Amino acid sequence: MATVTFKGASRIYPRAKNPAVNELNLEIRDGEFIVLVGPSGCGKTTSLRMLAGLEPVDAGDIFIDERSVVRLPPRERDIAMVFQNYALYPHMDVAGNLGFALKIAKVKKSEIKTRVAEAAKILDLEDYLDRKPGQLSGGQRQRVAMGRAIVRQPRVFLMDEPLSNLDAKLRVATRSEIAALQRRLGVTTVYVTHDQVEAMTMGDRVAVMKDGVLQQVDVPSVLYDSPVNAFVAGFIGSPAMNLVEGTVGSEGVAIGSTVVAVPRALKDTAGTGKVTVGLRPESLELAGEGAGIPAVVNLVEELGAEAYIYARLAHHVDQATFAATPDFIVRVNPKSAPKSGSAVELHVKPDSMLLFDADSGARITAA
Amino acid sequence: MLARRYIYRVIGLLVLLLFVAFFGVPLLWLLLAPTKTDYQLAHQAPLAFGSLGTFIHTFNRVINYQGGLMLTWLKNSAIYSGGGTALALLAAIPAGYGLALTQFIGRRTLLAVTLVVMIMPATALVMPLFLEASAVNLVGTAWAVILPFAFFPFGVYLAYIYFSSTIPKDLLAAARIDGAGEWGVFLHVALPLARPIVALVAFFAFVGDWTNYYLPFVMTYTNSEYPVTVGLQILIGSAPIFSPTASGYAGSEIYRPDLAMATLIGALPILIIFLFAQRTLVKGMLAGATKG
Fold first, then answer.
1. Average of per-residue pLDDT values in chain A
2. Which fold does the domain A4-234 belong to in CATH?
3. Lowest mean per-residue pLDDT among A212-221, B208-217, B275-284
């Protein structure tokens, strides 16, 4: 077990204009489960491969415990990795796959057998030890890939989108299994995914990346409640946060022609002029006539315990901005959900509005 | 419509038959020739069958020619081709792997050079190779044939194509993370998955070496050193009908059916090897390597 520290670590691909990973600074605690998340091309997988030693570090440094690893080949870093495509050795049976690293390390045959059997028991693979990967289902292959990592008893687990090849139901089940397994083993884990739900449900902390730059790293609830910028705000949460243009005036923030009051301290730092307003679906509620932002319901999504309405703000219902502006998503009680096509008014719950700089996207907070 | 399709089919079939006849008849003739005596071969219909007795008699004549020279030639061919193929594999498979899956300075240049020498006619290299072998006193030894056979750029290229197209890079990365060094990755992961290409390169190398005439002709001096290809030339040289000056030792004359038989005997090992190699060639080894 170990800590992992990225210190200004950068990766610049030859002939690329921007770095794939730009001065990443990240301290991962011993035993922590950290998730790197972001849209494709954000540098999360590259960061992981830099830590694994599969990708060179062009600037900066990476430490496992106190030791810099950037000049060490992968085999000297004492890490284990689960690949997106599992990368199982097709010519070896499951037992051979699980025990390969131990065989290379010249561990005694009897001990390899014990440790493979242990891992197989944990992962429910005991009946498949003599099968080749080609004879296994997707879920079983995924478990073999996990098993290959845990047999090693490495200092750090690296996982690169290990669930992306599973179907939706299996993915949810495996998600909690991996999280539980990691907590039980207590091995420091760096997990990469593009799925923010996976990130929020699995990670002790979540690091959000965009365009090679780390945006924010924190526990899931802080990311959700206090995103540092509009990107994190829009990326974390499902359904996504509503982001809309507003204008700060003396009374509050105007969204279309409706003015929503904001706390004085927040308004003071915001100054006057255009801002980006962020509203979670649960920050809004249906209000009586004249009490909120007018909108027209496009679609109602009933999920049983809750319902979401997708509504078009009244001041967006004109030809010029129609395509450019997404629907506003509002969580409502399914018992009293409006019909699609009906006109509603949306009331912003007190103190639930987030403001971001209209140009930089940075969060505006009360001084 | 139906009639038209039928006509196309018949035309297609006729064209195919024509090709079969064009390439098949000479082979058939070669198979039938040793069943006949020299006189029968010259005077009977080309595809007439002589007798099985004559076939066996011809076989014995060829095998016992000058105290079993044919067997010596076959043995030499086996040593030259076997040795050459083994060395060619030893060089070509790791070279193809290196060119396909590792990064080093000069990789692209080396690949280009491989391609260039691959398309160069092998015969063009025989003279300089002879001078080289002569300079280090190898001419007249098996090494003078085996070492040039080990040079097999086509095999390097085949291995390169195979490794770069069928081995997922993550598989090698997984082995590296699992603790394997570069040799370990090659030996434990890449090589076991490369069995089909090893078989293919071995087959091409062996056939090329076995049927090579000019290089061993230049590099070897005596009857006891010749491979079967050069030996066939010696046989033709001692057939009175082709070389009127050939001195016929009593009982050692060579006739035309004998030449056909010697050709068949010379080609037989290749046929047998092909039958064995083919099985490995079609084996799909990569099922389930990644998601599939």
1. 91
2. Rossmann fold (3.40.50)
3. B275-284
CA–CA separation, A6 vs A190, rounded Å?
12
**List of chain B residues whose C-beta atoms are within 8 Å of the C-beta of residue A69:** none
Mean pLDDT of B283-290: 42
Tokens 């434990």 map to which residue? Answer: B188
**In-domain check, residue B222:** yes
Residue in the block written with tokens 């904001």: A262
Place of tokens 């003279």: B127
pLDDT for A288 equals: 78
Residue appearing with tokens 């690091």 = A207
Q: Which residues of A touch B286 (CB under 8 A)?
A: 90
| Residue A357 contacts residue A275 (beta carbons within 8 Å) | yes
pLDDT of residue A143: 94
In angstroms, the CA B182 to CA A180 distance is 35
Q: How far is A196 from chain B (nearest CA, A)?
A: 23
The residues, any chain, with a CB within 8 Å of residue B39's CB and separated by 6 or more, are: none
| Closest among B287, B282, B280, B148 to B218, alpha carbons compared | B148
Q: Is a pLDDT exceeding 50 seen at residue B8?
A: yes
What ipTM describes this predicted complex? 0.84
Query: Using the beta-carbon criterion (under 8 Å), do A133 and B181 form an inter-chain contact?
Result: no
Q: Which residue of B has its CA nearest to A89?
A: B289
Q: Are A341 and A308 in contact (CB under 8 A)?
A: no
For residue A156, the chain B residue with the least C-alpha distance is: B177
Q: Do B177 and A136 touch (CB under 8 A)?
A: no
pLDDT of res. B291: 37
The domain that contains B120 carries what CATH number?
1.10.3720.10
Superfamily of domain A243-364 in CATH is: Nucleic acid-binding proteins (2.40.50.140)
Cβ–Cβ gap B168/A86 under 8 Å: no
C-beta atoms surrounding B194 within 10 Å = 22
Q: List A310's β-bridge partners, or say none.
A: A299, A329
User: Do residues A69 and A62 touch, judged by C-beta distance below 8 A?
Assistant: yes
Structural domain count of chain B: 2
